[in-house]
Amino acid sequence: MHHLFILFFATFSAAFMATVPPGLLNMNAAKVSVEKGKTNGIIFSIGVSTMIILQATVAVYISRFLSNNPDVIAALLKIATVIFAFFAIYFFWAARRKRVPKPKLVRVSKKNSFFKGLGLAAVNLLTIPYYSGLNIMWNASGWIKFEVWDITIFILAAGLGTFSVLYMYTIYFNKLENKTNRFSKNSNYILSGLMVVLLVITLFRIFY
Questions:
Q1: Nearest-CA neighbor of 139 among 62, 52, 65, 67?
Q2: CB 143 within 8 Å of CB 10
Q3: Are the C-beta atoms of residues 7 and 143 closer than 8 Å to each other?
Q4: What CA–CA distance (Å, rounded) separates 166 from 1?
Q5: Residue 120 · residue 48 · CB < 8 Å
Q6: DSSP for 82-111, written as a single string
Q7: What is the per-residue pLDDT across 81-113, written as a single tens digit (0 to 9) for each?
Q8: Of 51, 171, 7, 39, the residue nearest 110 (C-alpha)
């Protein structure tokens, strides 16, 4: 039971940090809030978080399917190192950019805000590899056991971590708007450092 608290905290934190840098999803959540009202922004955020839960579920079952064969566990850890290395470089590169490009904004009506959130989250192809890498790491650390409660905690933590950031953008965007560049750089450096830590731990698991 104790490992469930660790699993929730670790997954929630990873989802939270991955959603913090200004991007397509959180900036559109803020735009919806400004143009259509905070309630509609929250509905949009729920749509995004619902898709994240679905994608995290797919990631779990991909990892579970592969891990049923003991021979591929080492390969999974190597795949995780590639994923973490990619994200470490990606977030470091994003932090080094002098300007934060403005994400593409979309028109959202109150009627379809939930489904627009679902759709925008669905086009983010990095989500499933990201959560697959986390799942492989958590499994190697003994934090997830591919049981019903473990899987439920993992996907809920991913969804709640994402929603908490989107909610902040929806409610507090006006206060954050003037600090976007510095906010983005700092959060990207933190994410890059987190990926390096996960990479080192995974390499340690492979060789020791």
A1: 67
A2: yes
A3: yes
A4: 29
A5: yes
A6: HHHHHHHHHHHHHHH-SS-PPPPP----TT
A7: 787 788 778 778 877 765 544 544 445 455 578
A8: 39
**Angle at the Cα of 113 (from 23 to 159), degrees rounded to 5?**
60
| Structural contact between residues 85 and 197, judged by C-beta atoms closer than 8 angstroms | no
CB 157 within 8 A of CB 11: yes
Q: Which amino acid is at 93?
A: W
Which residues have C-beta within 8 Å of that of residue 51, sequence separation ≥ 6?
A: 117, 118, 121, 122
- pTM for the predicted model, two decimal places: 0.70
Structure-block tokens of residue 172: 């507090």
Phi/psi class of residue 22: alpha, beta or left (left: φ > 0; alpha: ψ in -120 to 50)? beta
Tell me the backbone φ, ψ of residue 130, rounded to 5 degrees: -60, -50
Task: Give me the half-sphere count of Cα atoms (radius 13 Å) on the Cβ side of residue 171.
Answer: 7
Question: Reduced to 3 states, what is the DSSP secondary structure of residue 37?
Answer: coil
